[in-house]
Specification:
Rossmann fold; Substrate Binding Domain Of Dnak, Chain:A, Domain 2; alpha/beta; 16 strands; globular
Length: 654
């Protein structure tokens, strides 16, 4: 057991890793241990973009590399380490932006079908946000019905993907100074799909060979993700399913129930999962479950589909990315329903060791060995009913090899940027002013976004939790999305009681408002909520006139997916200092790495950093926050002064 402790800090996961070994089940933890990463590919110096390769350009033998040595370190076509590293880096951005933006496209297609009355079971739940998006996009409101307005919004959203000229419209939500900077740099995205396709063209053999030019296209495509596809997904999902508000729930494998039909919903798109939530509460389905010997139907989630149904319905979290296989190892999961992204191909193999049905639902993501029940948005209720029935039918086939960890932890999630606005100011004075004021007076040092994945190359959850505890201890308010938020939840950091881990100033604010020091804002596409929150801070005033002026920083300490690179790049391009851990994909080229780590700050006011140690990474973020506080002139503590009437008259006279 001692050997397993390095694999996770979560006791429930450790128990299931041990059980998996006894059951002869091979998990990601085992595969990561057996398969060492390629040292050249890991630093971005391997090119396989044509059949003359793969070309593996080694690291320089010496810091004193001569021009002749450098000329020898080239691919067959003559591509340098800089060109190869930049191409690989922006191809990761293209992959990540495509994943998030295709999610947004799927939401927009469903949204339009709902608006036209072609998708039964769905409705437009948030009228206020519907009207706000209409105003943002210049869509006529007048005395038109919500559905008429929604049709125009849906058509407009879909047009953003194929737009060929101009700029994507949500860019206008950014601070004016930031918009002008993007235009000056020539990186304002034209259309979401166009920028992703252009990356693939530029990185084809023999096209763009200037690493700076390549990286600028990466910036443009990432902005099309953050301020385009991801923001469209978040906004339209809120209109369809409701804008999140704080909700109490639980996290960890202990939410799986021995005497109920357990359905795990896993992936990233909530279009079908919303219907599964509704169908699982249908009295007919519950009676069917009871007729199979179960007491009822229990839903739990993995990854970002889990976050979506958590923040809107309070459905508990079974765990994050590296717990998907471990959930099956409990032997009590009757069906795992998957859509797209972060789904391991090992799931059907592991399911064969138990009784679990793995059900794929997207035509884009089929897995050999899984049952495929294709989601039809025009007949979503029937799709959901078929899936729930499949799980119920599996319940009586359970074996005796069942072991469910007892570990669960309470959490509070659902802090959309609108909710934060309301919590800080109330229904009549909703405002970011209290947040800005408490940053100015020093109770809150700054704000950090800690997001991203799990990576089996490091101890599961440890880097997230260690970094977050260090940040809040130093009075930095943390906002989160994705699997990182789940790691913090398991560590007990997503409840108001977690203020005990915070510094004195942050704890005072949290206790006054009644919020945790770590705020769960949703799924990975919901990083767009963080963009809106920092924009609201700028617009509130007192902390500069651009996002890059704010005392804020970002991090993805256990990143593993291309989506994380796309997110990180649009955060950097929006003006925020961003630290990644685990490894860094351009270390094979000093020039490319220096451009990302240094030159981008001059260009965008934000830059990348790499630091695998979570304490050191946290202090890099704190140092950056302090630098911004000093630039704003708020680095020194201000004495609280109670003004009498004479002092107030003097102010009025001035």
């Amino acid at each position: 057991m001692a050997e397993e402790k390095a694999k996770s800090i979560d006791n429930a996961s450790l128990k299931m890793i041990e059980k998996a070994a006894k059951d002869g089940v091979n998990t990601a933890f085992d595969r990561a241990e057996a398969m060492k990463p390629c040292p050249i590919g890991m630093v971005g110096s391997c090119c396989k973009n044509c059949s003359m390769g793969p070309c593996r350009v080694p690291l320089p033998k010496s810091l004193e590399e001569t021009p002749e040595d450098k000329r020898k370190r080239r691919g067959v076509c003559g591509a340098t380490a800089e060109t190869i590293a930049a191409r690989n880096f922006i191809r990761m951005i293209a992959g990540g932006a495509a994943a998030h933006s295709d999610h947004g496209r799927g939401v927009a297609e469903l949204f339009l079908a709902v608006a036209k009355g072609e998708a039964s079971g769905y409705e437009l739940k948030d009228e206020q946000k519907l009207l706000q998006v209409a105003l943002d996009w210049g869509i006529e409101i007048g005395d038109r019905s919500n559905n008429e307005i929604a049709v125009d919004i849906g058509e407009k959203a879909l047009s953003e993907f194929g737009k060929q000229e101009g700029e994507i419209d949500f860019l206008r939500r950014a601070p004016l100074k930031r918009q002008e900077l993007w235009r000056q740099q020539g990186v304002a995205p034209r259309g979401i799909d166009r920028e992703i396709v252009e990356i693939m063209h530029r990185t084809h053999m023999g096209v763009d060979q200037d690493y700076k030019n390549l990286l600028q296209q990466g910036v443009r495509a990432s902005l099309a993700d953050g301020w385009g596809g991801s923001m469209i997904a978040t906004e339209l999902q809120d209109i369809l399913f409701g804008t999140p508000a704080p909700v109490l729930s639980k996290v960890n494998l202990g939410v799986i129930k021995k005497d109920e039909v357990n359905i795990i919903i896993h992936g990233h798109e909530p279009l079908l999962s919303e219907m599964i939530v509704a169908v699982s509460q249908d009295p007919e389905m519950i009676e069917l479950a009871k007729s199979s010997g179960a007491k009822g139907i229990n839903l739990a989630g993995i990854c970002c589909t889990a976050n979506e149904i958590l923040i809107r319905h309070g459905v508990p979290l079974a765990g994050n990315f590296l717990q998907q296989e471990l959930a099956l190892v409990t032997g009590a999961v009757d069906a795992m329903v998957v859509d797209v992204q972060c789904i391991m191909q090992s799931l059907p193999d592991i399911a064969q060791c138990y009784h679990t049905k793995i059900i794929t639902t997207s035509p884009k993501a089929k897995i050999p060995g899984a049952v495929h029940v294709e989601f039809d948005e025009h007949n979503a209720v029937e799709s959901a009913r078929a899936i729930v029935k499949t799980a119920i039918e599996a319940f009586p086939k359970r074996g005796s090899n069942i072991d469910i960890p007892k570990e669960t932890t309470d959490l509070v999630a659902g802090f959309s940027h609108e909710t934060i606005n309301y919590l800080l100011g109330g229904i009549f004075r909703a405002s970011y002013r209290p947040l800005n004021d408490n940053i100015i007076n020093g109770r809150i040092r700054g704000v950090a976004g800690v997001v991203g994945c799990n990576n089996p190359r490091v101890t599961h959850d440890d880097i997230h939790v260690t970094m977050i505890k260090e940040l809040i201890k130093n009075d930095v308010l943390v906002v989160q999305t994705g699997c990182s938020a789940m790691a913090a939840a398991k560590a007990g950091l997503l409840t108001p009681e977690a203020a005990k881990y915070a510094g004195k100033g942050l704890a005072e604010v949290c206790e006054t408002v009644g919020i945790p020091p770590v705020l769960h804002m949703g799924s990975c596409v919901d990083n767009s909520r963080i963009l809106m929150a920092v924009t609201a801070m700028v617009k509130e005033g007192g902390l500069g006139d651009d996002i890059s002026d704010l005392p804020v920083a970002g991090a993805a300490p256990e990143w593993m997916s291309e989506k994380a690179i796309s997110i990180g790049q649009y955060v950097v391009a929006s003006g925020i200092y961003t630290v990644f851990g685990v490894n860094w994909p351009t270390l094979g080229s000093k020039e490319v790495t220096d451009f990302l780590f240094k030159d981008m700050e001059d260009m965008y006011g934000g830059m990348w950093a790499f630091e695998p140690d979570p304490i050191r990474a946290a202090h890099l973020m704190i140092a950056h926050i302090d630098k911004k506080r000093k630039a704003l002139g708020i680095d020194k503590a201000r004495e609280r002064v109670l003004y009498d009437m004479d002092m107030r008259r003097e102010l009025d006279a001035v």
